[in-house]
Amino acid sequence: MRGLTFAYPLQPSEPALRGVTLDIEAGECTAIVGQSGCGKSTIVSLLLGLYNPSPRRRGTATFRFGDLPYSEFEMQSLRSSMSYVPQSPFIFPPSIADNIAYGLAADDAVSSDDRLARITLAARAVNMHDFIASLPQGYDTVVGDGGLTLSGGQAQRLCIARALVRRPRLLVMDEPTSALDAKNAAAVRQIISDLVRGESSLCHDVAAPAKGRAIASEGAGMAIIVVLEDGVKVEEGRSVQELEQASGPFSRLVSGGVWMESDTGNR
């Protein structure tokens, strides 16, 4: 996106984003951070195609996917190549396997064996395979209403596995740890960090065919960290240390306790 200004239809005079320029490169992970209401979720909504980006002026493309301007992109095709992890996990009533398999694209024809292999790889990537395998019915265990009750951390891991099984080219996570306690939040952040560093089995197997991109509205171990304030990009850096040493907006987030902390020592 280049100089993107966006206002929600019901508040046209109050831009949620103002002149934001942001590149999300293939093979990199971008963390967008800032206080509540700064514009993080607005960017997520635009990436998911929930709103059309407001043009800066007629004939100027300010929002592109690859080489194509937003107006020329077929939204169904775009959405079939991306996955989304929401703030609050949602679990369907069927089995664990079905919950993960819901992430497969509608046009992704796979055999039963391939389906199970991809489900298992996704579960391994989020460190749930051993837990699932220990259950009497394994991946056929029913969860949700009338079934096994998962903890908040387990439910969020299952949602991440559902997102990863698709082999997305674009993975979007909107504050995936905001509803978790400190221990489970740290575990989920470690999963994200492992994916970023390529240490997850999924990075070598499930996601191998596509060189993907990831974007999160919070994160540790990201390649690029973008700081938003009141809809404006105010800072960008390649590491937490770089931004802390700059003593700018990110440093103020850290000192104010807004930035997350984890048991791994990353912030």
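The record above closes out task 2.4. Task 2.5 opens with a second protein, given below.
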Amino acid sequence: FKDDTADRTWTSDYGGYGLPVNTTTRIESTGLFRVPSMVLQTAEYSKSGINIRWKQAAKGEEYLFVLYFAGIVLNRQDNLTLTINEQQPPFPFDVPYMDSNPVFSNTPFDFEDYLITLAGANLTSVPIINAFEVYKVYEPAGGATYGQD
């Protein structure tokens, strides 16, 4: 996307996680993870929850993830929970209407299989997701190039 300051490539898995929904209203992304408005203008939601899965490519690999949320459904703010590999307790967070809220891991995970589950925190909240990124953690090869680093 030409307006992505991090020069990321965004691909669509439209329909892969729920019912597609979009808006023409521009949604600004601020803070640490800036996402193009076009990415936040599309989402998927599912009343039965959203499951995001991937497998570790090789034993011992660690991953970080960023999930992007912006409420674009029915003029509402949803309260959701996120669970990783069904471990408790779930992490609660809000999805504000026409605003963005990234949720991210600040420490890497080392699982063979990954399952991120998004669920409504109450009876009226519907899980929604706009985008997600998964980063494989690489350790630098060799030592520092300058001894005082």
